[in-house]
Amino acid sequence: QKEVEQDPGPLSVPEGAIVSLNCTYSNSAFQYFMWYRQYSRKGPELLMYTYSSGNKEDGRFTAQVDKSSKYISLFIRDSQPSDSATYLCAMSISSGSARQLTFGSGTQLTVLP
Amino acid sequence: EPEVTQTPSHQVTQMGQEVILRCVPISNHLYFYWYRQILGQKVEFLVSFYNNEISEKSEIFDDRFSVERPDGSNFTLKIRSTKLEDSAMYFCASSETAPATNEKLFFGSGTQLSVL
What we know:
The complex is a heterodimer. By secondary structure, chain A is mostly beta strands.
């Protein structure tokens, strides 16, 4: 079983739709959860960060963590064509000395105008 | 907004040759990282670097790999005796604070390494 699993998509939605992106994980030691956005030929860009179960909202983005189910989600409201990118979930264990992010494989999202 | 700069954007090399990938982290950042992403696969951690020494490294970072901060601005990844399986996009990243909780990693745009 992979440590982090993410549906690769591709996912195509019309502009204005609500998008739901999901990851599951198997290692209960993961404590910190992130969502990155990666545009084509660019490096990952941190979108959302959370470390507790529940919801965290930032503008049109909501990150949801359910540690009991080992499941995280990213919701995008009122999706825009500029949201078209690959979305990567990432998780880390507090190692105290360095960051070793474990990434999901990414979900490719296309928002159609 | 400050950004991490990587050069070159593409690097082609023959198997067995040495390559150096270059990065200029954000100027006030103290922690530096290399990640790689093989086409169609996950982003993978290679190494972290702080205070002129390696903090942690992954199994991928074998003795063919080395990192260096030769001056106050550059951070380099050297791969000796390159193999076909080294072909990947290599990302440099940096962060201002110690990697513990919610610090933000800033990634460069990557160097696409192709080993022929």
